[in-house]
Amino acid sequence: MLLNKNIPITKIKWESSTRSQAFYQKFTRLEYTPSEKSSTIERPQIHTQKSKSSNIEIQAKALLNVWLNQKCPFMIQSEIFQSAGIKSGSAQITIKKFLLRQNLIKEHKIQMGKSYVCILEPLKAAYENIGITQPSTASKGGYLHSLIVHNIMQWANKHGYMADTEFMLSNGKAVDVLLRSTIEIIMCEVAISKPFSKEITNCLKDVASEIKPTAIWIIAQNKKSKIEIDRLLESEISLSLKEIAIITKLAGEFLNYSSPSKTNK
Q1: Are the CB atoms for 188 and 151 separated by under 8 Å?
Q2: DSSP code, position 74
Q3: Number of helices (H) and strands (E), helices first, in the chain?
Q4: Cis peptide bond upstream of 122, omega within 30
């Protein structure tokens, strides 16, 4: 359609703008004031957010109840969620993040082969959250130490060893785990905290006792720690220790109760 040249261009622009505004007002309800629009749209969103947060808190508390009321709470992360019936990966991530933010748990990682297994440690606040007393762990080294010891014990039972924790030697040294069979005596020392040089001292005390081990296993949390311990053994090992097979192993070798290797890798 040709424009009427007698109508000023400013009037055409103004009328076009007015028609355009009238058209969009019909769909966007611009007749509402900003405060009315805000109250209509934003309030349900705030309510939904609160409901979602409340639901996560309820699920997290239910998880703690199931997990920490177990006779033995020493489970890997996947087993904890499985015991609580939480199968969704996204739900697991959300609940774990909530528990970490609330300082109810601490996360550790144990190397298993080339991958890592997540270990969740319940803190004192987690027990308080569900109204139960935090138990004292059987091992003096803390939760992660106790979890590794527990899994070594499970592995030992499956593979025909008699196993004792915190076995006291005649020289006053306590061995983390003592494994015995008809042909072997293996002393296990769990090494998850530095300095690792103390493990050399532990080994010297182990071999200086009345019990002569056929092997000493030093259990490391990951491959980096294992390499560091192996280097210390090579550089600082004494003549008395050279007669004993001292092998550094990854704690992850015991988590699935598979047979750990007999030689260093």
Answers
A1: no
A2: -
A3: 9, 7
A4: no
CA 204 to chain centre: 33
- HSE of 70, CA atoms in CB hemisphere, 13 A: 16
Distance CA 206, CA 187 (A): 8
What amino acid is encoded at 208 in this protein? Answer: A
Chain CA centroid to CA 82, Å? 15
d(CA 4, CA 99): 71
Q: SS3 sequence, 181-232?
A: CCCCEEEEEEECCCCCHHHHHHHHHHHCCCCCCCEEEEEECCHHHHHHHHHH
Instruction: At 70, list the tokens.
Output: 């177990």
How far apart, in whole angstroms, are the C-alpha atoms of residue 137 and residue 188? 18
Q: What is the SS3 assignment for 32?
A: coil
Round to whole Å and give the CA distance between 29 and 133: 58
CB 249 within 8 Å of CB 179: no
Query: Which residues have a Cβ under 8 Å from the Cβ of 180 and sit 6 or more positions away?
Result: 161, 162, 163, 164, 186
pLDDT digits (tens, 9 = 90+) for 187-208: 999 999 889 989 888 888 898 8
Can you tell me whether residue 230 is helix, strand or coil?
helix
Tell me the pLDDT tens digit for each residue of 74-128. Answer: 999 999 999 999 999 999 999 999 999 999 999 999 999 889 999 999 999 999 9
How buried is residue 73: exposed, middle or buried, by Cβ count under 10 Å (0-12/13-18/19+)? buried
Residues 6+ apart with CB under 8 A from 70: 83
- pLDDT category, 160, cuts 50, 70, 90? very high
